[in-house]
Amino acid sequence: MGDVRIAIAGLGNCASALIQGAHYYRNAKAGDNVPGLMHVDFGGYYPKDLKFVAAFEANRHKIGKDIADAMWVKPNCCVKFAPDVPKTGTNVLPGPISDGVAPHMRESFFAYDEDEIESVDVAEELRKSKADMLVSYLPVGSANSSRMYAKAALEAEIGFINAIPEFIVSDPNSPIAQGFDKKGLPCAGDDIKSQLGATILHRVLAQLFDKRGLELQNTYQLNIGGNTDFENMQVEERLSSKRISKTEAVTSCVKYELPTKIGPSDYVPFLDDNKVCYISMRSKAFGDLPLDLDLKLSVQDSPNSGGVIIDVARAVKIALDRGISGELSSISSYCFKHPRYQIDDFEARNRVDEFIEGKRER
User: Strand 215-225 vs strand 274-284: parallel, antiparallel, or unpaired?
Assistant: First the structure.
């Protein structure tokens, strides 16, 4: 089937998990029972087919290093579950900073001095790398940078995956989203949903309450972690789209107004890449009697999304093979918090399988 050639904007913890995962599962075969993967065989493509051909960063200590070395550089703290990742032969390039680095994060990200290092022409480098797609792993709140990288993917005429909560792919009125459709290029997004994270768990529980005849009175979801994602999100003004994305993912599961408080709550440095989530759900049950649920989820944050992106990348590659353009609704609804169409997660999985089989165009 060939390679799935991936370029990455933002070589942080999530990128590290993705790259490690492609190597860790390199021997996975169709029919194998493989914990951690939603699809081993995705339309003839396997994790081993993912190749990382370009990466753009603001961290001066990552720039110039091979991707396989740079992904271990601080402040990255993703657990090493595949420490023997081989060299890729591709060095990290200085990407434009813009709003991709918040003022309070310049030191944490070891952001390069723009007077000393000149950023590259992203579209030109994407063309040189012969990438099939660009994955945006930029920090939350990178509104301008996200759109700049998406436009670069358009200019280079490759696919685009938006893993962060900037509403680009999900907005049908976005000139960028419309551009992918017009140019015959696929895109998927927005805001990656973890394999079993706070959002997917909260959504399924909300659906369960609703389908079992319970009426939710209110619900909250509090999240804490110690990676740079949580450090970055200490500034509330960078959080608006994140809160919208996570909240709509849950409230879309019921047909009535639901009081909520959902989103990142605090930065706890010693947790590193461990994310801890607390979910509370208050409801009325039979006889209007109370039924309450409280739970705690603890998970390695970045690897929790790695297997999801492995599926998304292969879906985009299949779309490229088939000449499918625009927003890929099946994989977006299944794998992202803020897709264009919010549908039942289990129905979304069925639609992805139909897409793989060629029974569904998008």
Answer: antiparallel
